Amino acid sequence: MKRVVLLGPPGAGKGTQATRIAEKYNILHISTGDIFRANVKEGTPLGKKAKEYMDQGLLVPDELVCDLVEDRVSKEDCANGYLLDGFPRTVFQAEHFDAFLERTGAQLDKTVDIEVAEDILLPRMIGRRVCRQCGRPYHVLTMPPKVEGVCDVCGGEVYQRADDREETVLNRFRVYQEQTSPLIEYYQKSGRLAVIDGSKTPGEVFDDICALLGE
Ligand code: AP5
Ligand code: MG
Fold first, then answer.
1. Residue 8: which of 189, 181, 211 has the closest Cα?
2. In this structure, what is the dihedral angle of CA atoms 201, 176, 170, 126, given to the nearest 10 degrees?
3. What number of CA atoms fall less than 13 Å from residue 172's CA on the CB side?
4. Which of 9, 109, 127, 135 is placed for a possible disulfide with 140 were both Cys, Cβ 3.0 to 4.6 Å?
5. Hey, what domains does the chain have and what are their CATH numbers?
6. Quick one: pLDDT at residue 30?
7. Ligand 1 within 6 A of 202 CB?
8. Residue 142, ligand 1, Cβ within 6 A
9. Which of 116, 55, 59 is nearest to 90 (CA)?
10. Parallel/antiparallel/unpaired status of strands 137-139 and 2-7
11. What is the pLDDT of residue 22?
């Protein structure tokens, strides 16, 4: 049973690592970004609201996020644990989630903060492509899919996210600094934080995370 939070700026490699970690530990990968993008694609009321914020690189309001995640981790497929990718994103979300954990008698094992300098992040984001179906990230230069435009794993369409244009990415970095980076101190204070150097290769970062999470 493992409950893990992945923290880190846009492009740090949360999605890249999450797919691998979820597979190794047989826990569910929950990406709030992927959930919102699926809702946008389906044109649900939640998707319509979320899109207004996402397209500008802003955070979706807390009240649309907290219950969604708490309901999701309460489902049976999370009985063996889960990995939260992109949640919490504000101190309000972290406190709300801690109150939920306490109510349900559960605890987080670790919050893994993947640290990467901004000048490395920008080219990662601009070159990123993502599978529309399963969310797996690729990169046009460093990690292209075997067949252009087609996901290696599920055969879905590989596309560029609407919020990966340079201007929007810079906005997302700003939002991260202002609203999400305070979580580093929040989790440090309660002794649940581990910092990982995300500038290494994806394989090295994965090994470092596994060393931290144990068997
Ligand atoms: P979300 O989808 O969570 O985006 P993000 O946090 O900005 O992070 P990214 O997905 O962009 O980056 P990543 O760390 O997953 O990097 P990746 O592995 O893809 O959120 C999108 C939006 O949804 C938000 O802006 C907000 O509007 C909304 N939202 C979501 N959650 C919310 C919440 N809780 N509250 C409010 N709003 C919320 O890697 C990036 C690229 O780098 C890829 O091309 C990859 O191939 C490459 N790469 C990865 N690792 C390496 C490496 N080690 N070396 C070289 N290249 C690498
Ligand atoms: Mg991601």
1. 181
2. 30
3. 27
4. 127
5. 2-116+170-213 (3.40.50.300)
6. 97
7. yes
8. yes
9. 59
10. unpaired
11. 95
Choosing from 5, 14, 85, 140 the residue with most ligand 1 atoms within 8 A of its CB, the one to mutate for a pocket test is 14
| Segments in the chain below pLDDT 50 | none
Ligand 1 pocket check for 15: Cβ under 6 Å: yes
pLDDT digits (tens, 9 = 90+) for 134-172: 889 999 999 999 999 999 999 999 999 989 999 999 999
Annotation marks residue 37 as catalytic: no
Q: In the prediction, which pLDDT does 135 show?
A: 86
- C-alpha span between 188 and 186 (Å, rounded): 6
User: Dihedrals φ, ψ of 137, to 5°?
Assistant: -85, 145
Work out the number of other CB atoms within 10 angstroms of the CB of residue 97.
20
CB 192 within 8 A of CB 6: no
List 14, 51, 110, 129, catalytic entry: 14
Sign of CA dihedral 136, 122, 189, 33: negative
Task: Output DSSP code: residue 8.
Answer: -
Q: Which of 2, 20, 72, 161 is catalytic?
A: 161
Taking Cα atoms as reference points, which of 8, 11, 7 lies closest to residue 169?
11
Residue 111, both tokens: 């919050």
Binding site membership of 87 for ligand 1 (Cβ less than 6 Å): yes
30 with 22: CB under 8 angstroms?
no
Q: What is the pLDDT of residue 200?
A: 97
Report, in this order, helix, strand and coil percent for the chain, each rounded to 5.
50, 20, 30
Distance CA 163, CA 143 (A): 19
